[in-house]
Amino acid sequence: VQLMESGGGSVQPGGSLRLSCVASGFTFTDHYMSWVRRRPGENLEWVCDVTATGTTYYRNAVRGRFTCSRENANNTVYMDMNSLKPEDTALYFCAQGTDWSRRGQGTQVTVSS
Q1: What are 12-48's pLDDT values in tens digits?
Q2: For 102, phi and psi rounded to 5 degrees?
Q3: What DSSP element (H or E) covers 58?
Q4: Looking at the DSSP assignment, which residues form a beta bridge with residue 45?
Q5: What is the pLDDT of residues 59-106, one digit of tens each?
Q6: Is the torsion defined by CA of 74, 64, 44, 5 positive or negative?
Q7: Vertex 50, ends 6 and 58: CA angle to 5°?
Q8: CA dist 58 to 6, 64, 69, 73, 74, Å?
């Protein structure tokens, strides 16, 4: 399993970013995919899930601001992040379903004025 995240950066509060994750080494359409994050000094926490058919589920703190999606043809999952807040600052990973040990190296998102 290989997962490669990209798209992170530094933005001001209220800004937007789009994270991408390209998957390989497994049958992408057999798995739902997750985005998880590690905020400074905290454990990994779940952010959203995207099922194989595109149904999405969100952490309360990001619902309405983040949109998770996938393109099965390109083995890619996305997370559009809007109205970013300083508390969204974290290292973001995509993971293969509930197995968070199967995640990429992460992409850093920093929200600061």
Answers
A1: 999 999 999 999 999 999 999 999 999 999 999 999 9
A2: -95, 80
A3: strand 56-58
A4: 37
A5: 999 999 999 999 999 999 999 999 999 999 999 999 998 889 999 999
A6: positive
A7: 95
A8: 20, 9, 12, 23, 23
